[in-house]
Design goal:
mainly beta; Immunoglobulin-like; binds copper (II) ion
């Protein structure tokens, strides 16, 4: 199990890149600090968002939740975003 944290604040994530071992179970503590604004974390193969690996429940801040999912089994560079703000809030999810 890999424990990571991700924070959404000011309509932005606090990191642009997350790196975990390929295929590992992930426990993500997701904190939304934007009062009255919904955010989530969702993981896709690439920025087309055609293939989804995981989408966390959308939460309205201020609130913190724990997401659990399994990282993609292959090594590579994947894509994450907030589904509510798919152009503004994006990043790279890297498996090694
Ligand atoms: Cu958002």
């Amino acid at each position: 199990m890999v424990a990571i944290t991700l924070t959404a604040e000011g309509m932005a994530f606090d990191t642009k890149e997350i790196t975990v071992p390929a295929g590992s179970p992930v426990e993500m503590t997701f904190e939304n600090r934007d009062t009255g604004v919904p955010h989530n974390f969702a993981l896709y193969r690439d920025s087309s968002a055609a293939e989804k690996f995981f989408a966390g429940e959308v939460i309205t801040g201020p609130k913190t939740v724990t997401y659990t999912f399994t990282a993609p089994s292959g090594k590579g560079r994947f894509f994450f975003r907030c589904d509510v703000h798919p152009k503004m809030m994006t990043g790279a999810f890297v498996t090694t």
